[in-house]
Design goal:
By secondary structure, this protein is mainly alpha-helical. Helices cover about 60% and strands about 5% of the residues.
């Protein structure tokens, strides 16, 4: 098995992304609402897990990744491979936030329309909110400061009916630019709480 602290390569991220998408696509070729549908959403989920007030174990978050139906594995090797990729991504993210938080950046999807590239933050934010929900009572104990830091993230999710997209372009850009600093701030807040405790 690979070193579980080794960052995923671009090819490995793409491999994991394809696996997650294939799992949530139904027989009609539609993407369901069940489970994590992309590596970008997984990145958001994992960021919340490693940033939050309490340890959420794999047996608690793995069902959130798969949704109601666990994948039909081709082999034990495939299972080991996918789980190893996820654990490496989780571990390297935790290490970055702990050792060099200023270097942490969310993994946002890049899209293109009419020859122009733009960033899509929604998947990552949806994943983060899923991670928060796994320990909602503990997150709520953070009070107003945690709520303030969560606002830019929640603005691009179903929790707020994606209100971040209803603003002017300048306001939407400002809000999306606040996501990464907010994620770092949330990590720092809960790390401080753990040290104080």
């Amino acid at each position: 098995m690979n070193n579980l602290l080794e960052p995923l390569t671009e090819d490995e991220l793409a491999e994991l992304d394809h696996f997650l998408l294939d799992h949530v696509v139904d027989e009609d070729g539609d993407v369901g609402d069940d489970g994590v549908a992309s590596v970008f959403e997984l990145d958001g989920l994992f960021t919340a897990l490693v940033s939050g007030p309490t340890l959420v174990k794999p047996e608690q978050w793995m069902p959130e990744v798969w949704g109601e139906t666990e994948p039909e594995w081709d082999s034990e090797d495939q299972f080991d491979r996918v789980v190893a990729l996820m654990m490496r991504h989780l571990n390297t993210m935790a290490a970055t936030l702990q050792e060099a938080p200023e270097e942490f950046d969310p993994l946002f999807m890049q899209d293109e329309e009419d020859g122009e590239e733009f960033v899509v933050v929604d998947d990552w934010c949806e994943g983060y909110v899923k991670g928060v929900k796994l320990a909602m009572a503990q997150w709520r104990a953070g009070g107003n400061e945690v709520e303030r830091l969560l606002n830019p993230i929640r603005a691009f999710t179903s929790v707020t009916q994606w209100r971040g997209h209803e603003l002017s372009e300048a306001e939407t850009d400002k809000l999306s630019d606040a996501i990464a600093p907010s994620a770092r701030g949330l990590y720092a807040f809960w790390a401080g709480q753990r040290q104080a405790g």
